[in-house]
């Protein structure tokens, strides 16, 4: 029996399915170029175990990650059920901080892309200048840079998110999204990344951008707010991303 099959038979079907889907997230992020060597992280809460979450085994590149290589952790920073798993301390700080503050979050995604890190250098950097920005602008939280991998930063991030919001600009750092589903968190991240890319382009032009009228912004954000509450939010797009990653030939379901 393979190690992956042994692991799969030792846990609930829901956990194994979540492991497979989260491993797919890493491969999709690799395909989209949302990587920073081994130094960003995506996580998912274990179904039925709200105090446990899954995260990458620190040291693996995103295109090497499989369902069985993911590390299971508790909210105190302990690796659960394995002696070999390694985790990024700053990653634990970020993800545990979100999960403690937001019981509605079942997936947390964090990137250091050039577009996201670029916008993170500007306070309130995203403006209502593109239809992509209107997908997320009412859902954005800006979080001050803190000491990485510290209890203080874990608690500060929790305070920033306590009032809601599913898209976070970590100032001087990068981006983060969260959602009740993996598909929803991925869709938020895709739209946030797109909005940041267009914002950076606009800031390099010789003319000021065209701002979308306030009434249009209000109507668009009201519609998006309703859409994000739907269980199917992001599902068709996420299924398409997984199919695209599958066509690249790597089996992360092991």
Topology (elements, then pairings):
Elements: H1 3-9, H2 13-32, E1 41-46, E2 49-55, E3 71-74, H3 89-101, E4 107-111, H4 114-119, H5 131-134, E5 140-143, H6 151-161, E6 167-170, E7 174-179, H7 182-203, H8 214-228, H9 235-246
Parallel strand pairs: 5-6
Antiparallel strand pairs: 1-2, 1-4, 2-3, 4-7, 6-7
Helix pairs in contact: 2-9, 3-6, 7-9
Key attributes of the depicted protein:
9 helices; 7 strands; seven-stranded mixed β-sheet; L-fuculose-1-phosphate Aldolase
The poorly predicted ranges are none
The SS-based structural class is alpha+beta
SSE run: HHEEEHEHHEHEEHHH
List the total number of helices.
9
- Give the strand order of the largest sheet, numbering strands 1, 2, ... along the chain: 3-2-1-4-7-6-5
Average pLDDT, rounded to a whole number, is: 93
CATH superfamily: Class II aldolase/adducin N-terminal domain
Distance between the termini: 12 Å
- How many β-strands, per DSSP? 7
CATH architecture designation: 3-Layer(aba) Sandwich
Radius of gyration: 18 Å
Helix content, binned percent: 40-55%
| Number of discrete domains | 1
Characterize the quaternary organization of these chains: single chain
- Tell me what portion of residues adopts beta-strand conformation: 5-15%
CATH topology: L-fuculose-1-phosphate Aldolase
């Amino acid at each position: 029996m393979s190690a992956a099959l042994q692991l799969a038979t030792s846990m609930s079907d829901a956990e194994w399915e979540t492991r497979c889907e989260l491993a797919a997230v890493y491969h999709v992020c690799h395909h989209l170029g949302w990587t920073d060597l081994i130094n960003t992280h995506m996580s998912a809460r274990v179904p039925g175990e709200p105090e446990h979450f899954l995260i990458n085994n620190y040291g693996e590149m995103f295109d090497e990650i499989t369902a069985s290589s993911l590390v299971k952790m508790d909210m105190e920073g302990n690796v659960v059920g394995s002696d070999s798993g390694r985790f990024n301390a700053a990653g634990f700080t970020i993800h545990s901080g979100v999960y403690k503050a937001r019981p509605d979050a079942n997936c947390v995604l964090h990137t250091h892309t050039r577009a996201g890190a670029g916008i993170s250098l500007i306070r309130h950097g995203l403006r209502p200048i593109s239809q992509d920005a209107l997908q997320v602008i009412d859902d954005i939280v800006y979080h001050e840079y803190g000491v990485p991998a510290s209890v203080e930063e874990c608690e500060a991030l929790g305070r920033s998110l306590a009032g809601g919001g599913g898209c976070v600009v970590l100032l001087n750092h990068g981006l983060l999204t969260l959602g009740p589903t993996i598909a929803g968190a991925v869709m938020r991240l895709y739209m946030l990344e797109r909005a940041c890319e267009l914002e950076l382009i606009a800031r390099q032009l010789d003319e000021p951008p065209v701002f979308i009228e306030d009434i249009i912004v209000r109507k668009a954000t009201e519609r998006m707010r309703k859409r994000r509450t739907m269980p199917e939010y992001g599902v068709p797009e996420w299924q398409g991303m997984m199919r695209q990653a599958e066509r690249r030939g790597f089996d992360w379901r092991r």
